[in-house]
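User: Predict the structure for this protein chain, please.
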Amino acid sequence: MDFNAFEWIQAKLQEELLNQGFGEAAPLEDSAGKAVLFSGESVAYSLLYDKKAGHFELRSATLDEDGAPGKWRRLALWLFDEKEGDRSDAESIANDFLDIVRGPKQIKQAQQKRRRGKDEERSVDPAFFINRLVNIFPQIKEDINGEKIVYGQVRPATFLKEKVVAKCEGLASAQPQGEAVKKLCALLDDMYKNGDMDLRSLLTAVLLNGLSDSAYAVLEGQMGDELKKASRFSRKLRGKNIKPEKKKKQKKVEARLDSTR
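Assistant: Here is the predicted structure, written as structure tokens:
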């Protein structure tokens, strides 16, 4: 019997949301893919699987007087390959979505999105990206666990520089036109498009800048225009010592007493 990730994640969300007073999942029409709606008194959550993009989304929206949802706002996004994704991947997605609907994490994300302004939809962080790299480089799972044991968390910049750059270099050299390279480039494109500012900087300044010219050329040929443009600009800065802008000296202001008074 095939494992149905959508139904499994839906059931986990429904169990939690029923306890919070939301209704049972109802089918929701969405041009992007399969979706369900969980309605509360004034807000609703939606679970969507975007088949073309290959990812799950958790969204929220306020309900109008008739109980219809307004504009959906993305709360979280997880890549998921229907052919290769398994139960453990679905569990990771469900656990993250459950953390969000339970409260504290959602508040934190909302604050982060308000600070981002125009970039409010970019909610994917470095930790998420590193976890998704396991699908391409399964061997780094041990390295991830090692980081957590020693440091309590994964150090994104150090981890990418020490554990991931060399693997990308080797992959580009061994399989320049292989499926693994295509998957890697698709992941990098998606992460750059949806990543927060920290992740976007790590992708260009650490990962892609760490590659040799030959390995970079292989990946560049399969990257999307947005990441390609950013990475080309970033690579021009390699090896350059960029000094911070000097603060301008402020003119001294003297306070004088009026002697005529």
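The longest helix spans residues 156-174.
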